[in-house]
Amino acid sequence: MTERERAGARGTLPVRIWRGGADGAFQQFDVPRRASQTVLDVVVHVQRHVDPSLAYRYACRVGMCGSCAMTVNGKARWTCRTHVDAVVAGGMLEIAPLSHLPIVRDLVVDMAPFFDKWAAAKGQFTPTATRRDPFAKVAPASPARRAIDATIECIGCGVCYASCDVVGWKPDYLGPAALNRAWTLVNDVRDGAGVTRLRAIATDGGCQCCHTQQSCTRSCPKHLSPTASIAGLKRLVAHAAMKGTL
Amino acid sequence: MIDATLAVRDESLRAVRYAVWRFVLQRGSAAVLALCVVVHLATMIYAVRHALTAGAIVARMQASVAWPAFYTLFVVAVAIHAPLGLRTIVDEWLGLRGPVVDVLLACAALVLLGGGLYAVASLTA
Question: C-alpha angle with apex A229: A225 to A232, nearest 5 degrees?
């Protein structure tokens, strides 16, 4: 620790950090406590000054990339925008990898199952026009565009997925993020996946599995409501089934 | 690892429609049950407050078409709703699913339906 760093410290914070794979254990570190310190700052300090072998993931540090999500004192959070002051409990922090995803090492999880489900929910845009066609005109105030506005800011951090009990109980459930993405595209007037996407999100692990407990909505760092998106998909597939168009 | 269970190409359209119809039936039966439970509770409160005897209640059931019809609807909604909910619990908590579970739950539905309709018929006959 440099002199300058030592000067800014206000005592120390005991931090328990998960080490190893699924069969690993918590290891305790004492980290200098600072004003406006984020949970990511704590993890970075441990890796840079105490144990360089600590594995974790981050990139932007400003809440854009969605790569630094971890379980902090039992709840999934984006660590770069989470102040220690807001989450410290009993004077200490416990930092673990995200739930419901395979642990690679320490705080790093394998995000492949999470993004595989985006693909399974047909989370990719399916264009209906070519480059020779004129630009689509989408009125900003139209209901479909407003529905997209409410969902589009997802950064794919996986916090909602890790917070969802149904994902834990039913591993093939697509999960809130993938379904939120599907709802975004369902409302995109330029998209042509139509009934193909509806069928993809109405499988046995599809939108109907959501129990509307709203853990995803409560935990979303971007303040989105995947629950509302999933409710929209439920209405859509139910209507399609009753009309015989599914 | 999850591709085999997630890829829509591996999930037949029939299975998708089955999954959606289960959802529609469970939500539809829940809506019916919400109404039925309110009416049933109101009826019980009325019967208690007016000190109706069992005989008086049975007499009213037998003199009416509406009450047996109402309780038949109640029984049908229960027979649809309960096994579908049980299916979700068995799937999520015990990890059990498949045709055998569906057949067992269909049997449970028939037991609920049979027992309920028998009770309604006994009170109205």
Answer: 140
Mean pLDDT by 10 residues, chain A (246 residues): 60 96 97 96 98 98 96 98 96 97 98 98 95 94 97 98 97 97 97 95 96 98 98 97 93
Pairing of strands A93-96, A69-72: antiparallel
A173 - beta bridge partners? Answer: none
In this prediction the pTM is: 0.89
* Assigned CATH class of A3-109: alpha beta
- Chain B residue numbers with beta carbons less than 8 Å from the beta carbon of A238 are 20, 23-24, 27
**Residue contact A238–B15, C-beta within 8 A:** no
Q: Which CATH number fits domain A112-243: 1.10.1060.10, 3.40.50.1980, 3.40.190.10, 3.90.930.60?
A: 1.10.1060.10
User: How high is the ipTM of this complex?
Assistant: 0.83
B positions 6-25 inside 8 Å of A (CB): 6-8, 11, 13, 15-17, 19-24
What is d(CA A103, CA B98) in angstroms, rounded to the nearest whole number?
A: 30
Instruction: For B3, name the nearest residue in chain A, comparing CA atoms only.
Output: A116
User: Structural domain tally of chain B?
Assistant: 1
